[in-house]
Structure formats: C-alpha cells, structure tokens
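testing teh design pipeline on a random one, pls ignore if ur not involved
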C-alpha cells in the first residue's frame, strides 16, 4: 500500500509540473509541440492508474503486481495509439 501512495504522490507532482510548464509556455506565446501534449496525456493516464493501484493494493492485494504490469502496458498502448493517430514522430537521441 505504501508503494501505491508513493506512486500517487510522484504522478500527482509530475502532473502539476507538466501542467505548469504547458500553461506557462502557452501564456508566453510558446507553441507546445505534439510531443509535449502527448507527455501531458501520458502523465494523466499514469495518475489515474496510480489511483487504481491504490484500490487494488488495499482490496485485492494478491493481484497488485498484475495490475502494475497491465498499467504499464496500457500506458504504452495509449502512447503508441496517440502517435499513430496524431502522427507524432518518435524522439531518438
């Protein structure tokens, strides 16, 4: 259960930081790239999943690891589908 709480706090902090950066950039006339919006969407997906993690950690502990793996697969799927439909290039450096 402690793991779930830490993940929620991390994802919540990350979501606040991304939102602040996007809002500040748009306020200053900086056009956010599709990748920036993709990252924001991914952070929100992970925040939602972390709440599901907490519920499973509390009520159905024996399935917790399966839910974590499914959450990672869901985030990967959401990212790939968004890239496909929005034609966002992969970033390789």
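output:
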């Amino acid at each position: 259960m402690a793991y779930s709480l830490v993940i929620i706090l991390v994802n919540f902090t990350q979501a606040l930081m991304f939102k602040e950066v996007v809002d500040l950039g748009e306020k200053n006339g900086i056009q956010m790239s599709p990748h920036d919006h993709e990252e924001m969407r991914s952070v929100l997906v992970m925040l939602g999943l972390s709440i599901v993690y907490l519920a499973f950690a509390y009520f159905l502990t024996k399935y917790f690891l399966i839910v974590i793996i499914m959450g990672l697969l869901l985030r990967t799927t959401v990212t790939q589908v968004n890239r496909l439909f929005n034609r966002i290039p992969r970033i390789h450096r």
